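Worked example 4.2. Below are the chains of a multi-component assembly; read each line carefully before continuing.
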Amino acid sequence: MITMVILGGGNVAQHIAKAFATSTEVQVVQMYNRKGVSFQSIPVTQNLSDLVEADIYLLAVSDDAIEDIAHQIPHAQPLVVHTSGSVSIEALSSHKRRGVMYPLQTFSKDRSLDYSTIPWCLEANNNSDYQLLEYITKSISTSFYSIDSEKRKKLHLAAVFVCNFVNHLYQMGYEITEENDIPFDILQPLIQETAAKVTQGTPREMQTGPAKRNDQKTMQKHLEMLALPEKKEIYQILSNAIAQTHGRKEL
Amino acid sequence: MITMVILGGGNVAQHIAKAFATSTEVQVVQMYNRKGVSFQSIPVTQNLSDLVEADIYLLAVSDDAIEDIAHQIPHAQPLVVHTSGSVSIEALSSHKRRGVMYPLQTFSKDRSLDYSTIPWCLEANNNSDYQLLEYITKSISTSFYSIDSEKRKKLHLAAVFVCNFVNHLYQMGYEITEENDIPFDILQPLIQETAAKVTQGTPREMQTGPAKRNDQKTMQKHLEMLALPEKKEIYQILSNAIAQTHGRKEL
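Applying the procedure described above to all two chains together yields the following structure tokens:
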């Protein structure tokens, strides 16, 4: 059994603890965070000086804290890994054996996930530790990729577009329905189908709507309906980006 | 049996013909379009003067063509409906009985859909025709709403945000993965989960990412990675919109 200490008290740490709770290869022997929050019966400490010995120390802390906390892990020669999309593996350079396990998913507090489908981006500074990361990842997921720090940063950027920014566009749609006394639920089948479509072809092939078909009249009417200049600007800039992608006239 | 003629040769006309093919209440007796494309064994004509008599004439043509084609439907007292999100019911004012059946979904050519879940936005200029539209809609879907022309325009605008613009953000994510030799499929679980999350709470509650947590360092790194000024601008404007929604500092 491989032993692991999880450092961090946020959503990611909680979800990772929950994912490894089902693993027959890994035992989470301790959690560390300042608030003292744990998962199920895993022992928790609020002091880095009380860390127990383990094979792997996994940091699910904020990007800025990675280097500092890694530096304070006292035990000799453990494998220290972080879980960040945008931080280089070199942030762990105070340790001889270092790695990254970046789960490419959005984690919310009260939302349960199918952990077996989460893609993990793995990196280690030597081959045997890479094999170890692959071995423990396989015990919780069917999906893993070897991705170095440079590519991981790009992937994190892509994730901001397809997740964080997409969610804000959902919010903009939500606000329009709310202001007009329309139930937001009426948009759900469209939201789900738009996401489902890109499993079947490239997003470019799946594009529909006024900007794609150069329907200037409809776009002008839409701009008039948007009262706030910030919202008009988002409408305009995204319509023009679609027009460019499809060789159409801009707004 | 209620008889219907479908006018239009695009994706929407094809999908509507396909949806009504399973209806036991409606028979599509003819299709009209300039290219002469039909669906299964439905008779097709390329001449408006050859339209047969029917209870309902359904226009699934481009917004700009609705008024003109409606005007050319020759038969006395039929119910004429269009399927557009952004055109008023009054575009059909050459007919005494007029209505709208707007399917709130994105239709692509080679993609099959579960028609029973498509929300239809219904409107008619008299109550008995509204009842008739509800009756025929129920024969193909479990989801329909009474939405007038003003609200329908707002809903169409919301649909552009949650579908067309969202799809373009998928495209931006696709381009980042392609430029860096990363398989786009690695982003699929994230895309699907981001869409699935908003069935459980408001998009505002589900927001995650650097702009939400005011992570200026990561946002600056992301801006540096985006080479094209248009892409930087989209990153900046959407990050600022998220910051505003969540009371954070702008980029």
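Take a moment to check your reading of the output against the notes. Chain A touches chain B through 91 residues (CB under 8 Å). The CA atoms of residues 7 and 61 of chain A lie 7 Å apart.
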